[in-house]
Amino acid sequence: MALALASAAGVRKSDTNPCPFDEQMLEYYRDLLAQFDVPYEEGRLRDGPNVSYTELADALLAAPGFEVGAPDLVLLTYAVPDLHPLRVVSAYVNDKLGGGAHSMALSEQGLRSPYTALEVAGAFHRSGRCDSALLLVLEQTSLPYHDPLVHGTPLAETAAALVFRSGPGPVAGPTWTGTPDELTALLDAADPGTVVVAGPWVATGRTSRVVRCDRGTYCTSVWLTLAEKQDLWRDNRSGILLCDVDPRTGRAHAVRLDPARTASEARP
After folding, report:
1. Domains of the chain
2. Which has the least CB within 10 A, 103, 133, 176, 203?
């Protein structure tokens, strides 16, 4: 039996924290950015929300009604660097949940990271090493430099957590990557019963059964919507298509969640 979506939680943080860095850490940032000729802007840290991925992960794990248990696999994904560059948040979460999981982070892929994480979870499951997986998708905006996407959109502090287990529920198919035009054609031709969860940069002429993600999200877009609107996938019998276009790469990404078939439904 494939891994199916069993539980989810979403978090939006609007509060702010004081800048947590001492002079030694600020010097680290100055030296790091100088190597890449990126202007250092300390004021963005001083005035930013300063919400770390550790804080977002803690908020997700404490979300009311979120059932995570002790997963076999913890996958942390993000597109914007953490506020604290030296913390290993996937290992931190693993430790909080008992320390018995494989844990890793996937980054440097833009908003594709969570889609890749689904492929990784599926591979672990097929190898017999995973009957439950926790996927964390995190986004924060306090950076010591100007980022056009982060500050121009602007993005907000958001996070989503999804638990996949062997059992009933929506099962993710293979992930899809293409051009924005190819995605538009894919959506317009999709079965009318399919629920489309479309990220902020998706263009489509489809008018029914489309759920638009809020602007102000990037990597978290469709996953936060899925976590906050659980009626979209609980008892869904027609399938859900999650999709977005990465404004940084111009690539479109999608994955379909279909109801797991019972043994009788699987017979020819």
Report:
1. 3-15+27-167 (3.40.47.10), 172-266 (no CATH)
2. 203
In Å, what is the CA distance from 103 to each residue of 39, 80, 200?
34, 19, 30
Q: Say if residues 59 and 53 touch (Cβ distance below 8 Å).
A: no
Amino acid 165 reads: R
- How do 170-172 and 252-259 pair as beta strands? antiparallel
Tokens of 220: 């978290």
Amino acid identity of 130? C
Interatomic CA distance for residues 164 and 179, integer angstroms: 28
Three-state secondary structure string covering the chain: CCEEEEEEEEEEECCCCCCCCCHHHHHHHHHHHHCCCCCCCHHHHHHCCCCCHHHHHHHHHCCCCCCCCCCCEEEEEECCCCCCCCCCHHHHHHHHCCCCCEEEEECCCHHHHHHHHHHHHHHHHHCCCCCEEEEEEEECCCCCCCCHHHHHCCCCEEEEEEEEEECCCEEECCCEEECHHHHHHHHHCCCCCCEEEECCCCCCCCCCCEEECCCCCCCCHHHHHHHHCHHHCCCCCCCEEEEEECCCCCCEEEEEEEECCCHHHHCC
Query: What does the angle CA 101 – CA 10 – CA 225 come to, to the nearest 5 degrees?
Result: 115
